[in-house]
Design a protein that fits this description.
It is a single chain. By secondary structure, the chain is α+β, with helices and mostly antiparallel strands. The chain has helices at residues 95-108, 113-116, 126-148, and strands at 8-10, 20-25, 37-49, 54-61, 64-74, 76-82, 88-94. The strands form 2 sheets. A 5-stranded antiparallel sheet has the order 1-2-3-6-7, with helices on one face. Strand 4 (54-61) and strand 5 (64-74) form a beta hairpin.
Length: 150
Amino acid sequence: MRSANGAGIAAPQVGRAIRVCAIEVKDNPRYPYKPNIPLTILVNPVLRLVGAETFDNFEGCLSVPNLRGVVPRSAEVEVTAWDREGIETTRLVRGLTAGTFQHETDHLDGKLFLDRVTDTTTLCTWAEFERFHKEAFVARIVPFIARMGG
């Protein structure tokens, strides 16, 4: 995850059939617009969607190199999981951070972001995203992050 400048990794991505994922964003050069998230380990996470607001997130995945696409995500989710010390925690995550949590926990249910893309014409390579979509996406997502606090 860190060596590839990813925002998270789930156990199934590294050949482990367990419900564990790690999420971390720290001044990520690949995603400079993403809010920082301290290293978070989720064991047996359960997500509950909060509210009806959604947003379109341009996602990629370390399991599908060099491909990106638009995925609708819930703007707020409540996450209940055990942490790395085995303590049950519940937290509310909002904004783009909520999208990151949904993306990583999807892996634990056998889903990739490709399974959530509703308009396949949004699929593009990383270079195409950078050239044709990144500026508009960042212009839209930065105010969303500011409004949602994450």
